[in-house]
Amino acid sequence: EAGVTQSPTHLIKTRGQQATLRCSPISGHTSVYWYQQALGLGLQFLLWYDEGEERNRGNFPPRFSGRQFPNYSSELNVNALELEDSALYLCASSSLGRKQFFGPGTRLTVL
Amino acid sequence: DQQVKQNSPSLSVQEGRISILNCDYTNSMFDYFLWYKKYPAEGPTFLISISSIKDKNEDGRFTVFLNKSAKHLSLHIVPSQPGDSAVYFCAASPSSNTGKLIFGQGTTLQVKP
Fold first, then answer.
1. Each residue of B76-89: pLDDT tens digit?
2. Helix (H, G, I), strand (E, B), or coil: what is residue A106?
């Protein structure tokens, strides 16, 4: 069974640009979660999508947004990039329970 | 305010011995706990979980213990193997199921051959 996949692996942007990160959940999983792991910090919850709807978001500014598509894949968009947005962005998926399975992450570098 | 704490940044054990990783939490609304292992440049891998209605859950070499009165959980790995060397994160989920897992800062485990 294929796990959670994320693309791209690495992304380099400059300040003020927009970044788009993509995630495909495990087959059969309807929930997708996004987390940020900045250098030296733990994993911080960003967003939760389920059945195409945003169910919850963490303490991040509105320039962090996303969506979930009918096939349950998801996109995270970060607008007006700032240097401190440089981090590993992790996507996770789950079915009915609270156990979340993570992808390999996208490393975003903002110059 | 860090609601989930792993107070030991690192732990070193000899191959074949027991590894004990600890985690403390402050929020009594947490009722589901998970442990993840993370290798460099990879995403966290789910290891084991426990519901607050239990005080122990076992899966092969991994056992998680939950002490609700002390708001403490621990992960035991027996016997430890060099391949277990990684960063271990505990995470907690509130009973309201917000979709949010709250993670500790992680403990780096090194298992020496």
1. 999 999 999 999 99
2. strand
